[in-house]
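Structure (tokenized):
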């Protein structure tokens, strides 16, 4: 029976694949902490990517979209109002922002343009009170619109 020499515990350097040496050198140079930190990242926080937090004094809850302001006064044939919609994480959900739909309950009093997107302009065409609605991620958000006449006379409250 023929005996062979025992195998070395560590292979000679010329037998270690070059890629393994490069990886080992990279980990050694960066340190083990860098390897661990690249795999353990903090979760992405959608609260930090919500456009209306500064207006509302806080971020709307997920599933509770907002329109800013929550009421607007416009003048028939004159001053217009701008409405902006926002929802939880809206700054990184562009397709959903562009899909927001705006409409007026009474287009003889007030109209919106454009009818889609994160903001719209409200124009007055009569005298009275109506609502503009934004459908945001499937939720309808009403906004009171008071339409005053050219002289500045406005309908009396309450505005609901």
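Design, position by position:
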């Amino acid at each position: 029976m023929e005996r062979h020499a025992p195998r070395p515990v560590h292979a000679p350097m010329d037998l270690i694949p070059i890629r393994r040496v490069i990886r080992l050198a990279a980990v050694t140079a960066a340190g083990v902490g860098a390897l661990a930190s690249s795999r353990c990242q903090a979760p992405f926080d959608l609260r930090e990517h919500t456009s209306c937090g500064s207006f509302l004094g806080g971020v709307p809850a997920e599933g509770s979209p907002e329109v800013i302001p929550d009421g607007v006064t416009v003048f028939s044939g004159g001053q217009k109002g701008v409405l902006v919609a926002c929802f939880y994480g809206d700054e990184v959900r562009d397709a959903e922002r562009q899909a927001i739909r705006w409409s007026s309950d009474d287009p003889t009093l007030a109209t919106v343009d454009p009818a889609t997107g994160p903001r719209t302009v409200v124009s007055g065409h009569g005298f009275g009170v109506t609502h503009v609605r934004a459908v945001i991620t499937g939720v309808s958000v009403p906004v009171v619109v008071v339409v005053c006449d050219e002289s500045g006379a406005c309908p009396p409250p309450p505005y609901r």
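Reviewer-requested clarification: Residues 8-42 have pLDDT under 50 and may be disordered. The CA atoms of residues 85 and 118 lie 5 Å apart.
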